[in-house]
Please model this.
Amino acid sequence: MAGETAVETPQQDNTKIDEPVKTDKEAIVEEEKAAEQATEEKKDEEKKEEEPKKVKAVKPKAPTTHVKEMEDDMVYLFQFTRSPQIPSISPFCLKLESWLKLHGIKYQNIDHKCKFRSKKGMLPFVEINGDEIADSNMIIETLAKKFDKEMPAQLSQDQKNVQHAMIAMVENHLHWTIVHWRSRDVDNTLKGYQLNLQTAIGSKAPASLLNFYFKYTFCRKGLKKVKAHGLGVHTPEEIEQFGKKDLQALSEMLGDKEFFFGDEPAMLDLVVYSHVAQLVMIEKDYPCPLRDYLEADCKNLVGLVNRMKDRCWADHWANATGEEMDLNPHIPKPEPAPEPEPVEEKKEEEAKKEETTEKEEKKEEEKEKADEKKEENEKEEDKKEDENKTSEEKK
Model:
């Protein structure tokens, strides 16, 4: 037709190979084989995924505690080192260790030279059965539940309320008046408690350098904390007066009683004892206004300290202070093994013995030779005498 363009149609390839027609049975068999292969491949993939998971589960977790090998239910206590005047210059450490002793809970002090702190940055803290517990109040509360321990005094609800208020006063008010006195002069801590920083922190640096470092770290931090708490804005005289009022309130509450709520100690007795002991145990020849006020006007608090000390520590107090400053006076010490004799001395003794024996043998040999010579000389003299006699007889 006019106006139309011719389009070439591609030639069909007639060389195709006709595929054989499969029967229904053959198609079903092939489908089953394909399904079996698919399930096997899935199983292989699942096995490959499970193998690395099993390996990861076997790996033991790295211990997060400082003590790697722990005894079951043993309390490992981390606190400040000992001092000649008091087992701990921290009232919170002293409170916790005294509580452990009072209830007969097995514990062990770790000698870490004040290097470790809890995850919260605090001392004291404890490790037990792979767990860490910080803050003395939380430690006591946790261990009391675990070991089913309570303070000996049985308190009513009103007494518990009074105890709570008084503990808050001691730990959040009286405590900072003591910290202020310690921190305003480095000698108040070092000389008041006869601290030797070289033994306390395990350093070989000169004492003068350590004292300088202590002044610009411990004392500065202490004054900053007192200021942050609110007391630091007052003059030293005013802060001292705050402390005296707290001590007077405690003394009037105690009165003539053995303990604050009767004949048995409560938690308030433990808290007051651990703080007031920080003043009572200061070196007698070193001046401290709060200690002098205690001894003059609050003698019953001094008596409370001595009663709690004897009840909790008994003879262990003397072992934990003074020259010994034993961290664990409650743990029996193994008998020292006999010292082996030095090898050099043994060799010297053996050499001396050999020399003496050799000398004695030589002397004996010399004596024997001398005796033989004497015998020979005597024999010769006898022969000469015999010869002389025979010659005279002949004449």
Observations:
- The mean pLDDT is 86.
- The first helix runs from residue 24 to 58.
- The chain has 13 helices and four strands.
- The radius of gyration is 46 Å.
